[in-house]
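User: I'm putting together notes for a lab meeting next week and I want to include a structural view of one of the chains we've been expressing. I don't have a solved structure, so I'd like a prediction I can at least talk through. The sequence is below, exactly as it appears in our construct file.
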Amino acid sequence: MKRGLIYLSVALIGLLMCQCEFNTTESPKTENSEVTTEINAEILTIDQKKNDEINQKNQESWREAKKLQFADSDFLQTKQQMSDDAIAPYDYHTGLVGDKAYNNIVYMKALERVKKHLSVVDGRLVPKLKSGAEIRIAEDLYKFILNVIDSWNQWIKEGKFEIIKTDNGYDIAPVIDDKMQPLSYAKDLTRMGHSERWTAIKEVVDRAPAGTYIHEHFLLSFGTSTLYGEYTGTDSKKRRYSVSDGCGTWGESDPNCIYNYIAYDADINDSQFYIYSLRNSNHQSLASYQLQK
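Assistant: Thanks for the context. Below is the predicted structure for the 293-residue chain, given as structure tokens.
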């Protein structure tokens, strides 16, 4: 009888020891889960704080740039070598607009000057100028505008745009395809978090919907001319996105103005990020997203 009790006691002690070991192995998992949740929350807080700071600085850059007034006698030159990057929606490595707001203002003013000196030859727009100096424009800026006009002529040839006469010279207007089916809805980005926004913008940009307006894809109700955001994904890679109301940026109340019309899509070469965007006929970005390599 005593021997039976001894065996029973040993068995109970062993069971209790196993139970203690089991509980001990469970505890670190719970603690690790809590730590991971706290870290993720901290990352989201840091991302949001950085977004707020960047958006505030970008809005200030645009406010200052829009105060600029240029007379016809003023020499026009951007603050960096004129290129697609000079008028990009933001710096692809920092998210900041900086001098790019100034560059966009100068570029649009220069484009207006060139339009006044266009003629139509064999269905093409041809500048009646030998150099940018004739109308007080930096040569790199003038050459960029010539490349833009070359793209206009290509789209005119393809029947995507047509030449129109204006009070100040010539311009182009999109040829709207009446057969194109309207979209069923536009995405409301203001109701989404950064990850959802990035995914929604990526889906639209990847479709390359040339021949449509940006507001057919996104509600332009975000309160500023450009909605920008960045965040770090679960793969530790940084992502950025932007959507712009081109018409609002340039003071047009009609969202169907040409500044919101998607003319083409572009891939941007960069050593650190994959970058894709939708552009209007002036080569300015309407939507973009980027992913760290």
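A couple of points you could mention at the meeting. The first helix runs from residue 2 to 66. Residues 178-292 form one domain.

User: Perfect, that's what I needed.
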